[in-house]
Amino acid sequence: MQSIIRHNHSEMNEFSGLLRIIIYSALDCMPSLGMLTINALAAADSVLIPLQAQFLSLKGLEQLIATIMRIKKRINPALDFEGILLTMVDARTNYAKDIMELVHENYGQIIPVFENYIPLSVRVAEASAEGKSIFVHDPKGKATEAYGILTGRCLRMAGNKRSASNIKMLDVNELLGLGQDSGEQAEKVMEVAIGKLYPFNAHPFKVLDDEKMQETVESIREHGV
């Protein structure tokens, strides 16, 4: 862990420079404390912790929070906790209710715990297996509604932070380097509804673990894309 943290200072500077031109960016990390997760935490403004309503997940939360605090101290002082989001909650059981209560009691005073949670739903697993968004796979489901509420809350929180920091955000034309004199090229910029975006299942970029990702990074550095 120590060597990983030291290695990330230069990478954090490169990634942070890129993020300055992005309005919102969500870095989805696998449930491990490898290189990718450390890099994401080094570059992030805040971290949202999804927590499965299970006892073992609750035990692992302590280690994760300790790691986040080390990264905040040594690499990214601006890193903050967005909150803890309980997921895969079967609210019909006393077990899940007990876990939720434990999270609020033990962490609610230091880290925000979202009142809304993601309910247990087989539809979410189906959407993941089929490579589809839950909003496309089950647009009227309870889990979909919960994710919609979460998205709205995160956008409001990010908007409040952006307003407080008084940062001037670039519009689409500025981001793409298209000025008023760009002529016909500017007309190619268009907005596409998210519902019209579908996964490209034949895409060759399918990396499932940190080691394979690092191999991909090194290959790109040496040979290009």
Describe this structure in words.
The structure is a single chain. With 225 residues, this protein is mainly α. It has helices spanning 2-19, 35-43, 55-74, 94-107, 122-130, 134-137, 142-165, 172-175, 210-223; strands at residues 46-52, 80-87. The radius of gyration is 20 Å and the shape is globular.
Q: Specify the biggest β-sheet.
A: 2 strands, parallel
Determine the structural class based on helices, strands and strand pairing.
Answer: mainly alpha
Uncertain stretches: 182-187
Instruction: State the end-to-end distance.
Output: 29 Å
**Percentage beta strand:** 5-15%
Reading side by side through the largest sheet, how are the strands ordered? 1-2
β-strand number: 2
Q: Outline, from the CA principal axes?
A: globular
Radius of gyration: 20 Å
Give the mean pLDDT.
75
State the order of secondary-structure elements, H for helix, E for strand: HHEHEHHHHHH
User: Helicity level, as a percent range?
Assistant: 40-55%
How many DSSP helices?
9
Summarize the structure.
This protein is mostly helical and 225 residues long.
Question: What attributes characterize this protein structure?
Answer:
single chain; 7% strand; 9 helices; 225 residues
Question: What is the fold's blueprint, element by element?
Answer:
Layout (H helix, E strand, L loop, with lengths): L1 H18 L15 H9 L2 E7 L2 H20 L5 E8 L6 H14 L14 H9 L3 H4 L4 H24 L6 H4 L34 H14 L2
Parallel strand pairs: 1-2
Helix pairs in contact: 1-2
